[in-house]
Amino acid sequence: MNLLQNASNKPFVITVASTKGGSAKSTNAANIGAFCAEHGLKTLLIDTDIQPTLSSYYPLDYQAPGGTYEFLHFRDVEPSHIISKTKIQNLDLIQSNDPSNKISPMLRDSPDGALRFSLLLSKIEGYDLIIVDTRGTRDISVDMSVLAADVLFCPILPHILSAKEFIRGTIGMYHDLQTFADFGFTLPPLKAVINCVDHTNDVKFVSEQLHILFKTEFDESKTLLDFTVPDKVAYREAATFSVPVYQQSRSEYKTIQQLCSLLMPQFAHNHFVDKE
């Protein structure tokens, strides 16, 4: 099977993005991907970050010789050359292999740079879900990942500087990309979630201000989910042991289940049901 054959069923694409580094994008991508894969969705993770946390999150059964660079540069490439297999059933990975950041200037110098990813993802066969992890800054590789998505998922840390960067950077990027609507593109709905939440007064205050902001300043294309991801040591321990967080701490099973259901309600009834 050639990777770029036309697919009869386009996979659902989630892009995880934040222009603020350290917002747990890779952790969320890894946990969502594993949960979906273990609940029957054939899932592909794509790591586009030059600091490839997601690429090394789970151990591999098969490591492909290539990765994101070959996927974007050569366009027509055999799946086995770029798609690695994790030890989690149904969960595959295209690793980031561009430490010197050759992809960004290549895309900027290409007439189809910001749009190429959309075409390539639409032609991938054999997956129900694709999750794209991005770098924590504004870059053409982030633009292309947003334009290719069906949902833009944005974790926000409940700190005042992180909230301000989300408004300036991530929302600013989203507004800038509206120009592609003139060329027939529809931007994906933005779904944000407050991440790493504890019970301090500062976190409570910032969270309340974010909810007010979304209700009063943003249109219906941007939603702050009425849901939070807690700040628990289990998330760091799970990354240390290379397992999904709900395997490290069963109390987080419901957290990831609910997050997946909110991001992908079309799969909730048939897939995101309790296995316990």
From TrEMBL:
Pfam families: AAA_31. Residues 13-162 form the AAA domain. It comes from the Bacteria. CDD domains: ParAB_family. InterPro entries: AAA_dom, DNA_Partitioning_ATPase, P-loop_NTPase. PANTHER family: COBYRINIC ACID AC-DIAMIDE SYNTHASE, P-LOOP CONTAINING NUCLEOSIDE TRIPHOSPHATE HYDROLASE. This is Chromosome partitioning related protein ParA.
